[in-house]
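User: Sequence in, structure out. Go.
Assistant: Echoing your sequence, followed by the structure tokens.
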Amino acid sequence: MTGIDRGVLHADCSGGMLVSAEELAALLRCEQKTVEEAARVGRLPGIKYGRSWMFPRTAVVQALHEEAMRNVMPRPQRARPLALAVQVNHAPEKSRGRPGRRSVLPVLPELPELPELPES
């Protein structure tokens, strides 16, 4: 392209709808090579014209929006306890060893039998 400024060309022909890899990298705050690689593997919609990449603004915004929505993690649901809350009776502690350390294990209560699950 002799005598024609590339920036003027893509701004005039498309009404400002195309951005270069350099401009997109500046907008995304990353390296130009990163933008070009994303276009090469299909993560960003772009058109390679000669040695330069051009990107339609609306398609890039849509692609970034779709990728962001895929990366949204659903909020984890609170796990419900599987066991019943049972008060544990502790055996009296003997005072040997260091103070504050339990020397005898607590006595656990008997748990009720759980119903059997139906086979699937």
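User: And one key feature?
Assistant: The chain has a mean pLDDT of 76.
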